[in-house]
Amino acid sequence: MADCCASAQRASTRQACPRCGAVGSEVGRETVGAMVTLNVPASVLRRPAFRFCDTADCPVVYYAGDVAVERAMVRVPVHAKDAGLDVPLCYCFGHTRRSILAETRRTGRSTTSARIAADIRAGRCACDLKNPSGRCCLGDVRAYQKHAAKAAADHPEVEERQ
């Protein structure tokens, strides 16, 4: 992958999720194909365009028209839909909320986003295939690093559980 975190420009319609009504971001068919379980019919994957629904309480992960792929039909936990500490924020390199929080508590800050950025520059990421959103994880990781820094400062005695 030359740079899986470069933004792709695609022609788009602003189609809403059939369950919650939110307009999700576009995601490549190759991402959906890499994420779905084997019991998802092949006909679903023939849709020309998919969107990723990141509404936390909506069971739909991907949709195309009236076709919806729900959480149970996806191989991995989806960080936008699962707030668990052990759910990956970075699917390429395995960084979780727990690992970021632990590093922050141990050292006072997290260097996760810097390490991921170095791996991206080295051509080692595959967000388009490994991240259910089909996007680079750096925005999510950086946002969680800020949350972890505040949580560690506000409650340094609290262990990360869940």
List keywords for this structure.
162 residues, alpha+beta, N-terminal domain of TfIIb, four-stranded antiparallel β-sheet, two-stranded antiparallel sheet, 33% helix, globular
What does this molecule look like?
By secondary structure, the protein is α+β, with helices and mostly antiparallel strands. The protein is 33% helix and 12% strand. It contains six helices and six strands. The strands form two sheets. It has a four-stranded antiparallel β-sheet. A two-stranded antiparallel ribbon has the order 5-6. Helix 3 packs across helix 6 and helix 4 packs antiparallel against helix 6. The longest helix has 17 residues. About 4% of the residues have low confidence.
Short account of what is shown:
The protein has helices at residues 29-35, 42-45, 97-107, 112-121, 127-130, 138-154, and strands at 25-27, 50-52, 60-64, 67-70, 88-90, 95-96.
Mean pLDDT: 90
Sequence stretches where pLDDT stays below 50 over 5 or more residues = 7-12
Radius of gyration: 17 Å
What is the end-to-end distance? 34 Å
**Cα shape:** globular
Instruction: Give a count of the beta strands, DSSP E runs of length 2 or more.
Output: 6
Provide the domain count. Answer: 2
Number of helices: 6
Oligomer designation: single chain
Topology as a string of helices (H) and strands (E): EHHEEEEEHHHH
Q: SS-based structural class?
A: alpha+beta
- Strand fraction: 5-15%
**Strand order, largest beta sheet:** 1-2-3-4
Summarize the biggest pleated sheet. 4 strands, antiparallel
**Helicity range:** 25-40%
